[in-house]
Amino acid sequence: MIVTDPRLPSIETADIDWSNGAPRCRRFGDVYFCSENGLEETRHVFISQNRLRERFSLLPAAAPFVIAETGFGTGLNFLAAWQAWDETATPRNGCLHFVSAERHPLTHDDLARALMMWPELKAYADQLLEQYPAPTSGVHRLVLAGGRVRLTLFFGDVADAWRELDFQADAWFLDGFAPAKNPGMWTSEVIDAIPGHSKPGTTLATFTSVGEVRRRLIAAGFTMRKAPGFGPKWDMLTGTLGDATSPETPPAANDVESIAIIGAGVAGSLLARNLAERGLHVTVIDQAQEAGTAASGNIQGALYVKLGIEFNDQAKLGLSSLLFSQRYYQQFGGEHWHPSGLVQLAHSDSEQDRQNRFIARNDYPSAVLQQISAEQASELAGIPLTRGGLWFPRSGWLEPGGLCRALIDHERIFQCFGFDVHRLTPCNGKWHIAGNGEQDVVVDRVVICAGHQTPDLIPLKGGFRFRAIRGQVTHLPAKGVKCPDVVVCGSGYLNPAHGGMTLAGATFDLHDPSPTLSIESHRDNLSMLDAMVPGAVDRDSGDVDPAKLDGKVGFRCTTHDYQPVAGPLMDAYGQPLEGVNLFTGLGSKGLSYAPLLAEYLADLLSGQPVCLPGSLAKRVATGRCHRVELTEQETISA
């Protein structure tokens, strides 16, 4: 069943009956866990019958283990598996991936109340609750325990989840209320999709022993048997994909020996850190002398996206990126991340009309965004604002340069600065990266994260639909500006003061290739501020003289469709160039897009479950940006 609510992205949450102390779902008339001892039931049914502790202890270094589940519910099964992972001699740099679907997620408050029943899981529950997403449909990736545990939550119908998600499970938890109470979770469509997401020898366990479920699993290719149930339940089911006597396929250690990332901006630095934390060795190459100096070198950067009126794939990618980045940057709070909140002003009549239609057409949880009046915006910002807008309570601003340098400070990241890459050449299954008289860097795989310089480095013939757009920001002394307490953005943006300065901008210079600061661009930024926040700039103060102001010029890399690029490099015929990936085209929203796309690309490079649904993976695919002129004969052949 496909969700048809026209007012997405909010999703209906579970209606919980707490009258007996334990959570009971009113919709399905069933309990979330055994009232006697739900945690012991989970351990008996799912942990023990899938032999998880034994299998965890046998994993090779840096190997992932993937568990898939058909109903997340209170998260009890997930937390029990996480605890078992922690208590077992798990592999160095290994990662537990837990993939789960939930059509009616619990609210944050209900989830917290349910998990309070298990004090021994509190340390795990606290981390889950800190990152638990707002009830919006689609895929949510949560990175927990410093990257040792990754939770992929699909809020929506389970059949849609198995169509959209890309993973191969080592073990299955078949949950989701009793088949008689919630038959939609146990349909042939759902069960038939399980083998396609499983490896030979994958195991499964379920609390039910219903004959129809058993027959469907056998038809799907599982060898099934009954096992003793828990508590009052006499029987349960366990199974193995294929012949029960054949050994399972052990999860493989990551076999990528070395990866080079060209470009040490936000995208490259995030990807390098992500891969290093998964146990991979990474070389970061940049022509500058340190990370975060080009377009990522601004002293401040706002975290926001502009969500479309239609909740299409573009809006889904923007929302997923924003929510993931807000969670990701929490670890840098107080240092490089400042979660002040952000007001997206309705800075003109046309933008006000757009925002009104956006609110009328969509339903976003207030934890994500809400429409506010000019009075409310002024109160939040701490300065007079003449217009209202959209309030993003969990957004804010970053110090991008410092963030980049912190990210690449890792024992498995080798820094290669002052290296001006000239060409990439394949040789004997390796990639040789040549610079200006430097010794070649030789690696298994290359990721080009070089922003607007990316097209010059792609080792393919033909053109590419990338474009460099100049942007200049203006540094303003705080004493000459009424600085807001939150980020205020509209036609441009104005940040809270930091270190006696604030930043405004950025210009959008389509036909100006100059890398030097321009007085005229400073004037444009000041004029933008006058229009967006009237009276914010003290024009009579000598502190804001355009001829005396400092700033920075950067070049955004955009694509023909203004959507980012991440993934294997494809040619015009859809064939991958083995060992080369692209990560670029983030435009002016790099701080928002980069964390999720770095997670996605690291998933691909490490062979782990993918955090993007298939529809969004296609949206960021590289093939759409390759343009080649074909000969007449080639055109006929194609």
Automatic annotation (TrEMBL):
Q: Provide the alphabetized UniProt keywords.
A: Cytoplasm, FAD, Flavoprotein, Methyltransferase, Multifunctional enzyme, Oxidoreductase, S-adenosyl-L-methionine, Transferase, tRNA processing
Q: Where is this region: FAD-dependent cmnm(5)s(2)U34 oxidoreductase?
A: 262-638
| EC number per UniProt | 2.1.1.61, 1.5.-.-
Q: Which GO terms describe its molecular function?
A: flavin adenine dinucleotide binding; oxidoreductase activity, acting on the CH-NH group of donors; tRNA (5-methylaminomethyl-2-thiouridylate)(34)-methyltransferase activity
Protein's UniProt keywords contain Membrane: no
Its catalytic activity?
5-aminomethyl-2-thiouridine(34) in tRNA + S-adenosyl-L-methionine = 5-methylaminomethyl-2-thiouridine(34) in tRNA + S-adenosyl-L-homocysteine + H(+)
FAD dependent oxidoreductase domain location = 259-604
Naming one, the record's GO cellular component terms include: cytoplasm
Q: Which cofactor does it need?
A: FAD
Which Gene Ontology BP annotations are present?
Answer: methylation; tRNA wobble base modification
- Region annotation (tRNA (mnm(5)s(2)U34)-methyltransferase) maps to 1-242
Question: Which residues are in the MnmC-like methyltransferase domain?
Answer: 119-240
The record's subcellular location field reads: Cytoplasm
Annotated function: Catalyzes the last two steps in the biosynthesis of 5-methylaminomethyl-2-thiouridine (mnm(5)s(2)U) at the wobble position (U34) in tRNA. Catalyzes the FAD-dependent demodification of cmnm(5)s(2)U34 to nm(5)s(2)U34, followed by the transfer of a methyl group from S-adenosyl-L-methionine to nm(5)s(2)U34, to form mnm(5)s(2)U34.
HAMAP family the record matches: MnmC (MF_01102)
Instruction: Give the family per the record.
Output: In the N-terminal section; belongs to the methyltransferase superfamily. tRNA (mnm(5)s(2)U34)-methyltransferase family. In the C-terminal section; belongs to the DAO family.
What is the name of the protein in this document? tRNA 5-methylaminomethyl-2-thiouridine biosynthesis bifunctional protein MnmC
Q: Which organism is it from?
A: Marinobacter algicola DG893
